[in-house]
Design goal:
Helix content is 35%, strand content 21%. It has 457 residues and is an alpha+beta fold. It folds into 4 domains: 86 residues, Uridine Diphospho-n-acetylenolpyruvylglucosamine Reductase, domain 2 (2-Layer Sandwich), CATH 3.30.43; 119 residues, 2-Layer Sandwich (Uridine Diphospho-n-acetylenolpyruvylglucosamine Reductase, domain 3); 109 residues, Alpha-Beta Plaits (2-Layer Sandwich), CATH 3.30.70; 90 residues, Alpha-Beta Plaits (2-Layer Sandwich), CATH 3.30.70. It is globular. 45% of the residues are buried.
């Protein structure tokens, strides 16, 4: 990088917060997709004005900029494919306001999701989105990818909990979207436009979130089944019987096997699937819902229901669920993690398809995820990444996405597109949709400095 440009960058954030050492550049060269691309510089701004000055300078010099939270994304969204500047948001980590009376909060993008939830809990409030990486992922990254999590079945995903944003555009202009009120329809809904845009249209510097009262009561259950087909069909049945869980998670036999030692009790040999089910609300409401659930399960002899007896049981169940993705490396050292959604009634078809695909291509494929909203994670595990294995992975992904769309679904539910799925978006989106997206990209980022190489093929 030109030394004069580097000095200008350093002048904005201070020398201490402008890093060019090889070791530090490598630390910011990858994300959860395990791809790598080395940036030229990593900067750590601590206010909106610094972000604005950095983007204005980058735009003038055609310097690529990749905004980064914790780097936990699975589709390459935080990988600086064309080098340039990584804009790390770790110093933009303040909770600016919690308005308990109006149930909103204002936060910066570097706030850790789990820490935000802990602070809200002290005031009997909650922020529902709860991705598996909540202990280290950031709210800015969640917004950029429109993250989901187990609670989406009842409370929705990130876009349903954000009502306003502050965004710095490519030219350095500062844009404010949305309102602090539940209703607001003045102009276009720019808030939703930026949520899920993966840093390709602007850099988020503040987030206004909608909050919820902390539920009075919650019960947690582990439902084990000896039948793959019947247990996946049960997901839709539960919701059709006027039972609305706050979480409804699914694990297949392979997923269970990699975390079985973390569960409160080891599963029996004939268990094919597990569902984690939680119900929250007032105590009377929860007890009524639990009774409905027990009545329904009397008609399902293939499954058994175990209620968590205490807080330790609950922690063990969730530690097992959140450990599936890293524990999958016990099966093979390389993973392609896909995140697809189908209508709930088509979950059995998708799961059976994945089993068939694994046998056909001689691959290890495990499925787990948020069954309550039809969002399954399909992990393809391979022994190595030679040409033959890479071709099989691409073949599996293409077949998977084609089947998902045939079933009426979408190829990405909460992981975004990044660059790992960009080649496939034309399977789902028509030419007009992609053309409109390209026009929006050109409008907001005419010099293509913001996270180039992502989303659009």
């Amino acid at each position: 990088m030109d030394s004069t440009l580097l000095q200008k960058i350093s002048n904005i954030v201070g020398q201490k917060h402008c890093r060019t050492g090889k070791e530090e550049l490598h630390c910011y060269s990858y994300d959860g997709s395990r791809q790598r691309a080395l940036p030229d510089v990593v900067v750590f701004p601590d206010c909106t004005e610094q972000v604005s000055a950095l983007l204005r300078l980058a735009n003038e010099h055609g310097l690529p900029v990749t905004a980064r939270g914790a780097g936990s994304g699975m589709t390459g969204g935080a990988v600086p494919l064309q080098g340039g500047m990584v804009l790390a948001c770790s110093r933009l980590n303040r909770i600016l306001e919690i308005d308990k009376e109006n149930q909103i909060a204002v936060v910066q993008p570097g706030v850790i999701t789990g820490e935000f939830q802990s602070e809200l809990k002290k005031q009997q409030l909650m922020y529902p989105p709860d991705p598996a990486s909540l202990k280290f992922c950031t709210l800015g990254g969640n917004a950029a990818e429109c993250a989901g999590g187990p609670s989406a079945v009842k409370y929705g995903v990130t876009k349903d909990s954000i009502i306003g944003l502050e965004v710095v555009l490519a030219n350095g202009d500062i844009l404010h979207t949305g309102t602090r009120t539940e209703k607001g329809v003045v102009g276009y809904d720019l808030t939703r436009l930026f949520i899920g845009s993966e840093g390709t249209l602007g850099v988020i510097t503040q987030i206004i979130t909608r909050l919820q009262p902390l539920p009075e009561w919650k019960e947690t259950f582990l439902l084990q089944s000896t039948s793959l087909q019947k247990s996946t069909t049960l997901v839709a049945k539960i919701l059709q019987h006027n039972i609305l869980p706050c979480t409804l998670e699914y694990m297949d036999k392979t997923a269970i096997s990699v975390v079985s030692e973390l569960l409160p009790e080891p599963p029996a040999e004939d268990i094919r699937t597990m569902l984690i089910l939680e119900i929250d609300g007032s105590k009377d409401h929860v007890m009524d819902q639990v009774q409905r659930l027990r009545e329904l399960l009397k008609q399902e002899p293939h499954c058994s229901l175990r209620q968590a007896a205490n807080e330790q049981d609950i922690q063990d169940i969730w530690r097992a669920r959140r450990s599936i993705s890293p524990a999958a490396f016990k099966l093979n050292p390389h993973k392609s993690s896909e995140d697809v959604v189908v209508p709930r009634t088509r979950i059995p078809d998708l799961v059976l398809f994945c089993e068939s695909l694994a046998g056909k291509l001689q691959l290890i494929i495990l499925t787990f995820g948020h069954a309550g909203d039809g969002n399954l994670h399909v992990n393809i595990m391979t022994r190595n990444r030679d040409q033959r294995e890479s071709e099989k992975i691409q073949q599996a992904k293409s077949a998977l996405f084609t089947e998902v769309l045939r079933l009426g679904g979408t190829i990405s539910g909460e992981h975004g597109v990044g660059n790992t799925k960009s080649a496939f978006i034309s399977l789902e989106l028509d030419r007009t949709s992609i053309a409109v997206m390209r026009s929006l990209k050109k409008l907001f980022d005419p010099n293509t400095i913001l996270n180039p190489g992502k989303i659009l093929p």
